[in-house]
């Protein structure tokens, strides 16, 4: 069997980066981490020692991934580059500011990768369960609601919630998989796709209580986005994209541009939304 690719993770101390580093090492890939992407010589040197580069840099460094692209181009040996994505498919969004600019930056990085002819995989993992499910997507909350719940839009578009461990498991599986080469890798496990209304109904069933539901119209939501400070406006704009416009699920995955992880790796057992919420039922 061919030896496993050597992986360099840039941004490995960030939120999803820590999960990626651990998953890569556990799966037997020689794993390296680099924090500084501003020293071109060191970056090229590090890249020359690996086969695959995964970027998990945060929001403020997204645009600086052009430096990684330049170093990969100069090194000339990289078999695959995974830019920092791990959310919506940024080529298929209907976002308003400030989310619009963040998505556009990721899309620009995609175009730069393609222009340089660098082999890639873009991971569209939709929502991190750990960021959205503990509060049931309630702005500023740290626990799921027990009395009333705010629902964006009419609550019908479907969103996708994936546990971080599962996201990184399939990301590392994709590294040496020819089926994911130059494709978007989507995570759409069937049991993790819920509309806001369905998510609330599931939570109500678990706690044995009906919540008061406050629906926020798109018009009101757009006004709230304009008037809210950072980072609340960012969270609301992402909520608008996903829960109002349905940007996680409002398109079909075509073989020309994408593959779906649960079809490629049917042996991976995903933590379902229902299982994930169980941990919060008995907490106050």
Structure description:
This protein is an alpha/beta fold and 284 residues long. It is 39% helix and 16% strand. The strands form four sheets. Strands 2-1-3-4 form a four-stranded parallel beta sheet, with helices on both faces. A three-stranded parallel beta sheet has the order 5-9-12. A three-stranded mixed beta sheet has the order 6-8-10. The mean pLDDT is 96.
Q: What does the largest sheet look like?
A: 4 strands, parallel
- Report the radius of gyration as a whole number of Å: 19 Å
User: What are the secondary-structure elements, in order, as H or E?
Assistant: EHEHEHEHEEHEEHEEHEHHEHH
Give the CA-CA distance, first to last residue. Answer: 51 Å
Q: Which shape, going by the Cα principal axes?
A: globular
* Uncertain residue segments: none
| Percent helix | 25-40%
What fraction strand?
15-25%
Number of strands: 12
**Class by alpha and beta content:** alpha/beta
| Spatial sequence of strands, sheet with the most strands | 2-1-3-4
Number of DSSP helices?
11
Please state the average pLDDT score. Answer: 96
């Amino acid at each position: 069997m061919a030896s496993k690719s050597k992986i360099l993770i840039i941004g490995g101390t960030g939120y999803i980066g820590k999960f990626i580093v651990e998953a890569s090492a556990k799966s037997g890939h020689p794993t390296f981490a680099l924090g500084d992407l501003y020293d071109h010589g060191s970056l090229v040197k590090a890249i020359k020692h690996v086969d695959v580069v995964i970027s998990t840099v945060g929001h403020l460094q997204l645009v600086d991934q052009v430096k990684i692209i330049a170093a990969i181009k100069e090194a000339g040996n990289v078999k695959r580059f995974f830019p920092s994505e791990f959310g919506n498919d940024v080529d298929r969004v209907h976002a308003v500011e400030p989310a619009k600019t963040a998505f556009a930056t990721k899309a620009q990085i995609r175009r730069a990768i393609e222009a340089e002819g660098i082999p890639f995989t873009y991971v569209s993992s939709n929502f991190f369960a750990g960021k959205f499910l503990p509060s049931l997507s309630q702005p500023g909350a740290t626990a799921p609601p027990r009395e009333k719940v705010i629902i964006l839009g009419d609550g019908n578009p479907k969103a996708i919630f994936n546990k971080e461990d599962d996201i990184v498991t399939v990301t590392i599986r994709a590294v040496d998989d020819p089926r994911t080469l130059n494709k978007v890798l989507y995570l759409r496990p069937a049991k993790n796709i819920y509309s806001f209304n369905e998510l609330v109904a599931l939570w109500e069933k678990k706690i044995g209580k009906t919540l008061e539901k406050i629906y926020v119209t798109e018009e009101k939501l757009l006004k709230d986005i304009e008037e809210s400070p950072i980072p609340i406006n960012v969270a609301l704009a992402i909520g608008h994209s996903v829960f109002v416009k349905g940007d996680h699920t409002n398109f079909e995955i075509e073989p020309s541009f994408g593959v779906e992880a649960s079809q490629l790796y049917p042996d991976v057992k995903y933590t379902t939304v229902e299982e994930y919420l169980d941990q919060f039922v008995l907490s106050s």
